[in-house]
Design a protein that fits this description.
Layout: H1 5-8, H2 17-46
Length: 47
Amino acid sequence: MNANYTSTCGCCPGMDVDEVRHSLDRRIEDVAEVLSLEREFDYSRER
């Protein structure tokens, strides 16, 4: 991997790749949680 990879990321300069991946994983988990909550809410509203 080339040395300037982190600076080309743009959104988060100075963060290393593992940190970026970790924060993305956390964000994806948050979104998945919200979506499952919304699905439960829709389901309970339809009954």
